[in-house]
Structures are given as structure tokens and as C-alpha cells.
Amino acid sequence: MSIDIDFFPFHDQSHIHDIAEALGEDSAFHEAHGYFLDPIAADVLVLPAGWMERMVLYEFGELRIYFLDVNDTAVSKYVRSADNDFRWIDAGLQSGLLDLDKIDARSQFGVDYPGDDDRRRIRNGIAAHRAAMKNSGSLRMELLEALRSRPEVRIATLIDDDYAYSGPVLFSLDDRVVQEVEHGVVVIHDSSGWKRLPEVGEISTITYRDGTALLEPGDL
Predict the structure, then answer these.
(1) Which of 94, 117, 148 is the last residue of a domain?
(2) How far apart are CA 100 and CA 119, in angstroms?
(3) I need a surface site. Which of 18, 70, 93, 129 has the fewest CB within 10 A?
């Protein structure tokens, strides 16, 4: 759906503005074809180690174009976390083009994150997508929208052995419950099979014993 293609000359960036003038926004090329090239500097992208070796080459006559591997691209998009980036990742996961395990592994090693907030955003994004992914390959979009409405929070990993979580419920679906366990920190419970779902706003204590959850007040 995007009509702009981010690009930079692979070997020589001295002519990047000449290229943009010929093929960029509002150029004759843009008017003729409906899309344009948007020049960027290579160092503005946050990418995992080894991304250059994984690029994919396409040749169009004398033109040689290297495209980023889609899973490497996803790392950069998670860091940005703009609405259009999430649409791209959502579509890639639902179509099977993206591999969340590869993205997760590449995001953890050899990435030069500009700041801690960038690292938090990518960990949140991956955790949210893991919780939102159904066995069918589709996504629980209501859950993603609820999590994205609170971009400042951190999604913590559940500890499912003799551990209790207390706090207000922020989101409640048939098979997923989001709970704020301390200020700015949430956990996502798998509520499949619970006899009772807590209501949004309810202050609950959810205790895990040997992998089984118990809800107070009330039983699961």
C-alpha cells in the first residue's frame, strides 16, 4: 500500500539528491508510475548484525537493487513502532512472510539500539504479537489495539510457577487478559479455559501454581 520506497545508493551516496530529484516525490517518475523513491542515510536504520549479507538482489536490466531481508526490516519497523509499521508487520505475520522467532533472535544480539526506549518498543512489539497470534495464523486485533493504546508501558514475561500477580485488569477477552501489575508494567495471561473472566477495571490477584492459574476473587 505504500507509495514511497526508502533507498540509498549502495556504493556512492554523493548523487543521492540527484536520484531523488529524478525519481523522488513530485517528480515526473512519480506522476507517471504512482510511487517514488525517498532518500535516506544508511545509518538511520536500526538493523540486526549480518543484515548486509542477507540482502536479496534483484536485477532490472542494468539496474541492480538490493532489498532488505523481510525479517531484518521488521526489526527496524518494531523500533519505529509507527501505525504504518505495525500494519506492515501485522500483514507480514498473517501472510506467513515474517518469522517471529527469527525476528526475536536477531533483535537480541548485535543490534545498536539508540536508546533503552527503542529496546523496550521492540520487546513489547514481539511480546504483543506472540500473545495475539492464533493457531490459525490470524491475529487478535482487539488485543493489539488495546496494547498499542498504551505505548508507554512495558510488557513483562509471565512467571508461571508459584507466583502471584495483583492489579487492575486493563483488557479481557475470551482467551487473553491484560493486567497491570505495577505502574507502567503489564502482563498478558492466557485465559483459555477459565471459568470466569475478570472484568476490565477489576482488581484481581492471579496466582500460578504448577502452571495452573487461580483467580481471586473467584475461581478460574
Answers:
(1) 148
(2) 16
(3) 18
